Protein: Glutathione S-transferase
Amino acid sequence: MPRSPWSPSLSGPCSKVETFLRLANIEYEVVETRDMYGSPTGMVPFIVHGEQVIADSRRIIEFLTTEHHVKLDRDLTSLDRATGTALVDMIDYNMNPTFFRLAFIEHPAVATALLSKAFHVPSFVARLFVCSFAGYLQSRLRIAPFGALTRAQYENEFLRDCEAVEQQIGDKPFLFGDEPTSYDCAVYALFVPFINMKSYAEVSEAYMAVAQSPILVEYLHRLTERAFPDLEELLDMTNAARSEVAESSLGEELHAEEHEAEAQEEQEVA
Structure:
């Protein structure tokens, strides 16, 4: 996935893995791709480590921790690890769906701006993809308990989850003390877009809860300084290096979707 205008990657799990790699001082190379055929799960992130290909952010972090003798979590107690696992589950299964539901279904202008900037495509082209993905997302939500919640209900759940993260941080620099752990990577990946999306955060009380939280904002700044001190420069360099939309395969695919949508509209009118 490409860099996001608001975070290290357009994909939260990719941001999570890259944050871990940086905190663990493991050398790596980012390959931006939309081709998922190399992934064992057909999804990103996945890594190629020697002759091994590992997918899923949790499995990747577990593998790298063992392979490179990473000691980010060495001082954690059993209770700390249980709490960290619960926080990551809460992020994966409760909070991430809220972000996507708000951005792609309730306020598609947010997702349109995000994709337009990330892929360097016109807004109307990005909007076509947003509409397509929103339909897919709604079909997935209908078969999950989360999808039965009203907007007010799932935003309230998100706010409660934010409060739980704030309580865990408290007056500490990071989740469990003076040093970041692997669990901080998941929290950072979820929340860092909110403090960089500026006026787009105003569309939702859930977004604003993060953007205006002194505890979360200061926490995210500390992690950015620790893991991504070059984040702004990194995003600028990535954007400058990206090829023109008309010459990219992504641009061709998105323009093809645009023409297909126009043709379908013409058939419906006829």
Remarks:
- The chain has two domains: 3-228, 229-269.
- The longest strand covers residues 46-49.
- The chain has eleven helices and two strands.
- Residues 229-269 form one domain.
